[in-house]
Specification:
The chain is mostly helical. It contains six helices and no strands. The protein has one domain.
């Protein structure tokens, strides 16, 4: 599970992939994770475990895109207490749509 070893890469990739799907309706051309989003997530995580604050927005975006039930509270709990699981779940949701579009 890549999100267990380097969650910032998975987070950044999810951000790029969700943005591409929302703005173009197509999968991201190169959803590489080593970018500013990755650095910000890593920095916030290292400086006090605050990466989950960023993760909340992506999780909400994925939930809204696929009409997945949930709430702001459940997003907070998932991204703060189960960050690798949350990131992986979001990645798999995005992957299902990307495969369908290819």
């Amino acid at each position: 599970c890549p999100a267990c070893f380097c969650p910032c890469l998975t987070y950044a990739s999810n951000v790029q992939r969700l943005h591409a799907l929302n703005s173009t309706g197509q999968p991201a051309r190169d959803p590489g994770g080593a970018n500013g989003d990755c650095a910000l997530y890593a920095g916030l995580t290292v400086l006090g475990c605050w990466g989950w604050v960023l993760g909340r927005g992506v999780r909400r975006g994925v939930r809204e895109r696929y009409t997945i039930p949930g709430s702001a509270a459940s997003d907070c709990l998932a991204t703060s207490l189960l960050a690798p699981c949350s990131l992986t779940q979001e990645s798999l949701e995005l992957q299902m749509e990307e495969r369908r579009l290819l």
